[in-house]
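ARCHIVE CARD
CATEGORY: sequence design from structure
SOURCE FIELD: tokenized fold
FIELD CONTENT:
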């Protein structure tokens, strides 16, 4: 792990602005001043399914995250031939406790307002987060806490892709789409810039304080989903279309999720 960090930080001082600025944004759909568009954000994991339905908001109005419930939502297991309906919970998110199965293909179907929207996804293999730690590095303007998340990758397959999401006290913090180009001996080490040491000079969106609970999750994704996330991270489009049928934004992902938590304690972080 230390060998990897040495190589990485020799490079980071030359390219940090270009390499990392674009891949740590929140998921941000481009909502232009047109008629509201349906946004479907669906996931199926080893514990069940969640599907959120919302509408885009004109750029000159406050973001509306109210969930829509006037729809029929169904997930079909194309491998077993079984299907199950999802019902909205108290917050308006469609849910089911039917777990996804590794290797099975699934289709999400949403029916609303006379339109039908469908998307398919294959459930990949679960990964293991092997390590998660912070290190202080000296930048020209301050010390910065760099988070490294290490997780397993199948060395026998190529073009494996993953979605790493980091949460701060339960709220979305940063994310990155990752492929296996930098996999070594079956391990991928992903590094993210987080908070600077001088919190008075740090933006609220990046600031980490002592006691903050930092949670990382990793899921395997298809190359299509990777391209979709990459387009969003660049910020100049909503990515390739992920649904057939009526036009909408969003995605459907069947994938086992792996999570690991640590507590941010600035005095315990080692200096690199």
């Amino acid at each position: 792990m230390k060998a990897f960090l040495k190589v990485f930080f020799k490079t980071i001082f030359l390219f940090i602005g270009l390499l990392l600025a674009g891949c740590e944004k929140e998921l941000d759909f481009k909502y232009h001043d047109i008629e509201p568009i349906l946004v479907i954000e669906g996931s199926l994991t080893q514990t069940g399914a969640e599907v959120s339905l919302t509408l885009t908001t004109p750029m000159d109005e406050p973001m509306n995250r109210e969930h829509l419930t006037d729809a029929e939502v169904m997930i079909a297991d194309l491998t077993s031939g079984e299907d199950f309906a999802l019902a909205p919970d108290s917050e308006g998110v469609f849910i089911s406790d039917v777990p996804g199965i590794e290797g099975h293909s699934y289709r999400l179907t949403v029916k609303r307002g006379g339109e039908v929207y469908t998307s398919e996804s294959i459930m990949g293999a679960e990964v293991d987060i092997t390590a998660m730690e912070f290190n202080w590095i000296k930048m020209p303007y301050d010390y910065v806490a760099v988070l490294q998340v290490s997780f397993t990758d199948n060395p026998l397959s190529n073009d494996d892709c993953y979605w790493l999401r980091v949460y701060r006290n339960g709220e979305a913090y940063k994310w990155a789409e990752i492929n296996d180009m930098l996999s070594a001996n079956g391990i991928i080490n992903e590094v993210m810039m987080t908070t600077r040491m001088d919190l008075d000079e740090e933006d609220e969106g990046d600031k980490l304080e002592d006691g903050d609970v930092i949670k990382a999750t990793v899921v395997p994704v298809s190359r299509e989903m990777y391209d979709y996330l990459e387009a969003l991270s660049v910020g100049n489009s909503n990515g390739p279309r992920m649904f057939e049928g009526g036009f909408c934004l969003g995605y459907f992902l069947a994938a086992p999720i792996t999570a690991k938590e640590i507590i941010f304690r600035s005095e315990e972080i080692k200096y690199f």
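CARD ANNOTATION: The first helix runs from residue 2 to 20. Residues 6-26 have pLDDT under 50 and may be disordered.
SHELF: design records, drawer C
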